[in-house]
# Entry
Amino acid sequence: MDGSISTSLSTPDSAKPYTVNWVYVTTIVGIHLLALLAFFPGFFSLIGFFTMLLGIHVFGQGITIGYHRLLTHRSFKTHPWVEHGFSILGMCCLEDSPARWVAVHRIHHVHSDHQPDPHTPLVNFLWSHCGWLMVNNKATHSLDAMATYAKDLLRDPFYMYLEKRPLAKLLIAAAQIPVFFVAGFLVGWIGWGWNAALPLGLSLVVWGVLVRVVAVWHITWSVNSLSHMFGYRTYETGEESRNNWLVALITVGEGWHNNHHEDPSSASLQHRWWEVDISYYEIRLLEMLGLAWDVVTPRHLRHAGKGSPARAASRAG
# Structure
């Protein structure tokens, strides 16, 4: 990877004076500490490990396909129940509510790698990776931000309900713990008897929920940090986005980030044959199943008449 950045910026003025966002800090630190239970052999199982790997992809697509390409950029259309299903998967990743996530990401596109950008690595790597989450930012953690940058979501009673009742978001995220525990308990009981039931239930909670959530966090955060620091640039986009093959691998496509900043409304980040974008292939699969339509293809294909035109509803930035 080449082209590392050297310019520096200060943190956004809207984050000053610094005050700790105790909700985020407590959640992030707490889940990381609980995930350390994975180092205790009693919590390990192959079923738990592979559940974690599968969960990274399934729940992670709640962020990539749901929060990002569908809700933020409106790169395709789908049924409300499909959209809400992706949103619930995203909330199980503990990356905030859909409307708040969308508002922050649209602010990022408007001010990318300039001083108001909530998480530019031009401040430093740690700030862009997760440090920005640890402090309150008046430009992102406010009703005004959602009203300005996510008002289309708040027209949907489902998202408005989530914002009016924070406990509902917590219950959705917390509900996955008993679900995974019961699933593991039943599999252990049916497969190996009572002695295996409790250990497997706990293993699925530790690996299938806690470790998976931490993994999805760092995978998502790597787009903000690494994909604005290291990689190659196909387009001059007025900010520091990079195409980073490693991030593209672990995010199943999001690492082709310079391509994304060049054409944010596109459902596909693949502009060259070898820039594999599995998330786009899955959106195409949804289209084949009748669960997605008006899928926006890259600009060069749209201009050639081979895809849906970019819609004004998308927040291109």
The chain has one domain: 19-303.
